[in-house]
């Protein structure tokens, strides 16, 4: 019985760590993955390197073509986006 009593504080510490650190981090990762999956042409994005640009093309292999300035396009790995600054409305198909 005493052995179980000694493990109770460790179990409580693990429970607190889970709810304060692990669970919020998992939610943050899930939200980031959803944001990256929803990127479309025309969205204004910020990369983790701090570059701000407009998505010109979404490629199949998790890459984006981002226009940083007029005539300056770079290829960016989709998962390196830090945030989407402004979303565009979906293009209506005719």
From TrEMBL:
<protein>
    <recommendedName>
        <fullName>Sec translocon accessory complex subunit YajC</fullName>
    </recommendedName>
</protein>
<keyword id="KW-0472">Membrane</keyword>
<keyword id="KW-0813">Transport</keyword>
<dbReference type="InterPro" id="IPR003849">
    <property type="entry name" value="Preprotein_translocase_YajC"/>
</dbReference>
<dbReference type="GO" id="GO:0015031">
    <property type="term" value="P:protein transport"/>
</dbReference>
<dbReference type="GO" id="GO:0005886">
    <property type="term" value="C:plasma membrane"/>
</dbReference>
<comment type="subunit">
    <text>Part of the SecDF-YidC-YajC translocase complex. The SecDF-YidC-YajC translocase forms a supercomplex with SecYEG, called the holo-translocon (HTL).</text>
</comment>
<dbReference type="Pfam" id="PF02699">
    <property type="entry name" value="YajC"/>
</dbReference>
<feature type="transmembrane region" description="Helical">
    <location>
        <begin position="6"/>
        <end position="22"/>
    </location>
</feature>
<keyword id="KW-1133">Transmembrane helix</keyword>
<comment type="function">
    <text>The SecYEG-SecDF-YajC-YidC holo-translocon (HTL) protein secretase/insertase is a supercomplex required for protein secretion, insertion of proteins into membranes, and assembly of membrane protein complexes. While the SecYEG complex is essential for assembly of a number of proteins and complexes, the SecDF-YajC-YidC subcomplex facilitates these functions.</text>
</comment>
<keyword id="KW-0811">Translocation</keyword>
<comment type="similarity">
    <text>Belongs to the YajC family.</text>
</comment>
<keyword id="KW-0812">Transmembrane</keyword>
<keyword id="KW-1003">Cell membrane</keyword>
<keyword id="KW-0653">Protein transport</keyword>
